[in-house]
Amino acid sequence: MKYVLVIAGSDSGGGAGIQADIKTITHLECHPLTVLTAVTAQNSLGIAAIHKIPARFISSQLETVLDDMIPDAVKIGMLYSNPAVNEVARQIKKYSLTNVVVDPVLKSSTGTDLAESGVISTLKTVLLPIATVVTPNLFEAGILADKKVRGPHEMVEAAKRIKLSGPDVVITGGHLKDKCMDILYDGAHFHRFSGSRIDTANTHGSGCVFSTALATFMARGETVVHATKLAHEFTRTAIMHAYGCGRGSGPVRPGPWRRG
Predict the structure, then answer these.
(1) Buried b / exposed e across 36-66, counting CB within 10 Å, b at 16+?
(2) At 50, is the secondary structure helix, strand, or coil?
(3) CATH number, domain at 41?
(4) How far apart are alpha carbons 133 and 186 in whole angstroms?
(5) Is the pLDDT of residue 245 over 60?
(6) The pLDDT value given to residue 213
């Protein structure tokens, strides 16, 4: 059994965050290890409140887990404060963790800030240099690259800039107007994974599912390129099986899926 460590926030609505991560890892037949970084009071309409977990307690969770089980991959999601970013980076280096996927969660799908002031700079200087892959969406790529990202050409240019921080870059293009396309840049080549747009408003949690699937496929021994392809396909299937839940955007379904 392969272990995938998830360091992320909780979604009380159950559609994104660590809840979506656990469902994804379990469906892909690996074991989830979890470290909670924040607790949100949210539903399908938005986030009402955020309670950040103190960095010292994040560290305690990490050390307790890692003293017993070393993961085959790591997925890092919401890190709300600078101390949290610094502590997670310290533990990754302390335990020499590999296959580290960073999903730079900066805003919720309903527009709420999910990171305090200064976190972006700390992510770029402290966490990205020790990550294997970073998976921003168009908005997040624009913040990390310090430029607007609206189309494929800008995705390419942003990926080049972000790669200067160290990790391979996968910019997810689910918000592109014409078609859905993810672009991977490994420093030498660009790889594109595309598909037709899926007509649904229920996409809550898609970014979490993609980054966690990518980490899980890497834990199972796949290369970054093949893991990205598989994560792209897995997330598309999860979106195809999305469902309404509450009065807002419903969640994607990262398995199990009905057959036939």
Answers:
(1) bbbbbebbbeebeebebbebeebbebbeebb
(2) strand
(3) 3.40.1190.20
(4) 9
(5) yes
(6) 98
